[in-house]
Amino acid sequence: MHIEQIYTGCLAQGAYFIVSNGEAAVIDPLREVEPYIRKAEKSGAGIKYVFETHFHADFVSGHIDLAEKTGAEIVYGPNAKTGFKAHIAEDGEEFLLGNVVIKALHTPGHTLESTSYLLLDENRKPVALFSGDTLFIGDVGRPDLAQKGDITMEDLAGILFDSLRTKIMTLPDDVIVYPAHGAGSACGKNMSKETYDLLGNQKKFNYALRSDMTKEEFVAEVTAGLPEPPQYFPENVKMNREGYESFDDVLERGAQPFSAEAFEAKANNTGALILDTRSESDFAKGFIPNSINIGIDGGFAPWVGALIPDLKQNLLIVTEPGREEEVVTRLARVGYDYTIGYLNGGFESWEKAGKETDSVVSISAEEFEERFGAGEIAVIDVRKPDEFESGHIKGAKNLPLDYINDLMKEFSKNQSLYIHCAGGYRSMIAASILKSRGFDDVINIEGGFGKVSKTEVPVV
Predict the structure, then answer these.
(1) Are the beta carbons of 237 and 55 closer than 8 angstroms?
(2) What is the pLDDT of residue 188?
(3) CATH number belonging to domain 361-452
């Protein structure tokens, strides 16, 4: 028996590959499925099952493509209703995989179909629990994403309490917990950076598993302080539940190279949004007018999901040469399937063609200190509210990047806007969006609050 956790940092997501005696199973696969197929071939195993812990909201799973390419059976837990062929497991149903057994444990609460999968070894000893979004390391799944009809998040939190106490906490302490997410995911609020742990440790240190906790206390703690879920979550759930276009077709369409002239014509003729995925420092020096910067080496996919509300928006890509397929893939992971091509040769080819460019003024924290001391200026802090409350520049206005599309009226075109975040990634995104909306006097503070806080600029 072999268990492999396949962790994708940009999504803080864990998929799992299990092999026993020539048979393999994949749990919660990402959209691109060739890596799983190659693993199976290398292991000399055939993929028998694709287990889904629930209808994911934060990414599009590869279950449909993987089943079509391998003949594997897709398995969901009770209450799941799909738009494609799938086996809907009963609570406690067992699936033979080589010499081991995978047992479905219906653990609703995060969603009503949420199911954990317990791995039993050749001697039927419980070895590992693939807990999906029911139990994280240090946290549990948020109960507000599957509210519908008369079912409230408090109702779901109460159901989750029962699932944890009756299905999971009764398991042996030496069972390894393998969750679907870690720190950085929007599916919880207090996740650890660790990506797996012994259940016994979680019983000791996870606030939600305290043995003396009442259901009322659990509901209050689990529902307190939940941030608004990203706007793309419901669309991802729909795609995972009803089906989607083949990833191969999405990649073929998105990986079309265009010369500068053809790229410009495509943008003009289709109304496509130009997404520039280079680093914030490269973007600041020069970019195609009206393009939006979301760097591929930051929290790329979640920020795309938060800031581009229409998943069917046509996208044209500017990126570092050689990273085009990576960008298309990472967009497809969160349901953005309508990339229609990229700028061949990157931004340099645009410049060589003599096309119009724009730029963002960026200043150092030291230069900002000089300007701050010279008079009253408009400082915009685009960090999250809790970051702002923990310390901010005196007089700064907090307009979180997450909600910038709804906050446009809060920005003034009649004065210079000094934008910053924690380190520079988010502020350049904000600056690019503002520039595309006609805000010409936008100044980015390099290094963000981290650098400014080391100067004499007053912080409160």
Answers:
(1) yes
(2) 81
(3) 3.40.250.10
